Amino acid sequence: DAGVIQSPRHEVTEMGQEVTLRCKPISGHNSLFWYRQTMMRGLELLIYFNNNVPIDDSGMPEDRFSAKMPNASFSTLKIQPSEPRDSAVYFCASRQTGPRSQPQHFGDGTRLSIL
Amino acid sequence: KQEVTQIPAALSVPEGENLVLNCSFTDSAIYNLQWFRQDPGKGLTSLLLIQSSQREQTSGRLNASLDKSSGRSTLYIAASQPGDSATYLCAVRSSATQGGSEKLVFGKGMKLTVNP
Fold first, then answer.
1. CA nearest A103 in B: which residue?
2. Do A113 and A11 form a contact (C-beta atoms < 8 A)?
3. Average pLDDT, chain A
4. Please, are residues A104 and B104 in contact by the beta-carbon 8 Å criterion?
5. For residue A91, which residues of chain B lie inside 8 Å, CB to CB?
6. Residue B7 CA: distances (Å) to CA of B64, B90, B98
7. Which residues have CB under 8 Å from A111's CB, separation 6+?
8. Is the dihedral of CA B95, A77, B5, A106 positive or negative?
9. Contact B94, B100 (CB under 8 A)
10. How do residues B49-105 score in pLDDT, each as one tens digit?
């Protein structure tokens, strides 16, 4: 049973470049979450989708960040232009909503380094 | 604004000890609380989820308790093993009646090392 799949696992790029992170949620899960993890701030929710619709994007740091979910099996997080302070580990998670609470399932993350 | 705190940030113990990990939160209007484990270079794995109406949940050697009124949760690990070495995070989901959403607010985690 495949879990949440993220790509790439590692990304190193220069400041100013566009970065696109990808996520495939677990089949049947209808909520998808993007998180960012840093030593200083810990794990922070950036945005989440329910049935492919963005519900809460209050955690998106600035307009340089955008996220899309064109269908139930794919989501992207884009940073344009990237800056060194965007360096972090970005996680995608999914869960199945319903009357009974289900935990979120996390991917292994994308480690992003902006030089 | 909900804040979640985990103290201490790190703990090193010999194998076999019974452990208590602490988590505190500032707003008692929660929907549920979850404990996660994170191994180096990996994502988070859910260990236990406690609904706001529950007092505790158990899974194997793990037991999590919840005291909403005092804003505290503890994760008890019995007979610790080297394989338990990881970072443990707790996360709180706010109550829907407070306008909460699916958003989880995480503590910064506690790094546990169990020495053989």
1. B46
2. yes
3. 93
4. yes
5. 43-44
6. 16, 11, 27
7. A9, A10, A11, A89
8. positive
9. yes
10. 999 999 999 999 999 999 999 999 999 999 999 999 999 999 999 876 544 578 899
